[in-house]
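# step 3/5: fold
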Amino acid sequence: MDTNSPQDHARDPLDSLPDDVAAAAFRRLVRHLRHRHDAQNIDLMGLAGFCRNCLADWIIDAGAPLDKVAAREAIHGLPAAEWKARFQTDATPEQLARMADSMKLNAR
């Protein structure tokens, strides 16, 4: 089932959530990811097809008046370059392969 078609969004229960509830859940997700530095972006991409940087892009797409650098800082909780230097590990060939396979599953 393609959950990205307009017909599916028309009956998606998420759309019936009050904006303040959805926003609170989003903030909780972001804060959870800020706490879980062990959850590498490459692993998130390999498992779910999105990562912290995707969330930053999505808030821009949703209308946040931020550029990419500021959006990533909002999601990471510190400048993305600093987050990367402190917490990001080098991706293994296996992680890269999982990410590539996972990305094929994302809606087009």
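# step 4/5: annotate
The chain has seven helices and no strands.
# step 5/5: archive (pending)
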